[in-house]
Amino acid sequence: MAYKITEDCINCGACEPECPVEAISPGDGKYVIDADKCIDCGACANVCPVDAPQPE
Hints:
Blueprint: E1 3-5, E2 24-26, E3 31-33, H1 43-47, E4 53-55
Antiparallel strand pairs: 1-4, 2-3
Protein name: Ferredoxin
Domain 4Fe-4S ferredoxin-type: 1-28, 29-56
InterPro entries: 4Fe4S_Fe-S-bd (IPR017896), 4Fe4S_Fe_S_CS (IPR017900), 7Fe_ferredoxin (IPR000813), PSI_iron-sulfur_center (IPR050157)
């Protein structure tokens, strides 16, 4: 099960460098997670100040 970044994202970028498989990239107003690359490790969720990354 991959993580998904919700609309709560404030586009701060804290999550992107934490992803060990480079599944996170800037999107249109918020960051996005490539579900095919995500390994469900939760590293992004651990650093997000607004809890935007959530398990799908």
